[in-house]
Amino acid sequence: MRNLLFVAVSSLALVACGTNDAEENTDTTTAQAEPAEDYGYETYDEDNLADTMASNDDAQGMGDSVAREDQDIPDSQDRPIMQAQVVLDRIGFGPGVIDGKMGMSTENALNGFQEANGLDVTGQLDEATKTALSDWDSIPATRVVTIPVSWGDAEYRSIPEETAAKAEMESLGYRSLDERLAERFHTTVDVLKELNPGGQPAGASEDDGPNSQATPTPDVERPDGEEPSYFQAGQQIRVPNIGGDRIEKGKIGDRNWQRTLASLGVGSDQPEVNRIVVSKAGKTLKAYQGDKLVALFTVSSGSSEFPLPLGEWDILGEAYNPPYSYDPKVLSGGKEDGKEYMLPPGPNSPVGVIWIDLSKEHYGIHGTPEPETIGRAQSSGCVRLTNWDAARLAGMVSQSTQVIFEA
Predict the structure, then answer these.
(1) Is residue 307 included in any domain, yes or no?
(2) Which helix (H) or strand (E) holds 189?
């Protein structure tokens, strides 16, 4: 059990990279906002409240996996980098967007795994690292899933560029089924298309049986202003084989947050950490149990105008699916005035699905609507992660977790 548990209170209005200016909320609590859109989902079973696309195998890759569709449709090619990425993602060393390519986030994840396992820290998938990862060889790079039928009933809306127009929306939800699917499997729509040439899972043939949506019309326009989608509900597709997505019954007290975790492929079983260290130079967030490194995520942190506030900070609370108070004065460091707007919650909110509030005014740790920019684009001083990594981190920390920002 944690030393201090978070409990739900009234919604927290976030300003810029910010704070609750309306109430000066410094309670050691978790705030949450009721999302306007309910992305309903069918759970995997009564004991696993992840969605029906759950990996349902051992989070560490050990033991036998339950028989799944991908055992009937082997992948058409080996994907060694993607296989390493899905394993690293499962064990807490986040490679960012899973794309089957070596890049900064994957190198950071390998650095973290190597450090945690006493290996030479090279950031490369060298032989010593491959040997250390060999316990997870039974985890394939991809699996085949069926997109839940209920996903076809959800509303997907284009999001305008203008802040005033965003403020008029009920939710900053997913713009398309494709975007929702990509975030569920920690990847991009382009990678999903590569894994499903012509709308069929890579490796599929006519002998494998029909796909309920074998050849979806690319980018079909949806009614009522919804974004176009390439994939469709009920379709069988190949996805990165992310795991660690089991949601234990009764573990998540807030039902809305439970649905959010399911939509992100994030499970309820996360290690409790007593210290996190954000490195501006390394673009990483490391999480520790005592002296043991148990997780690492690539982050964006600060800019020349809004530098990362170096030092030690406290965690005041967490806001699940928070609204966002857009204040030009705060965003410009007092250089500009303008109309303030309250933006609704959702995965496409400027702070994503989670806000971890810090004792440094206007600063926190949060998600993002643009996961591919993490570690590359600068932030407005805060620490920004992918939505799935931020949600996972939220399950690791408490008010007793020490937060250190270093150069």
Answers:
(1) yes
(2) helix 189-195
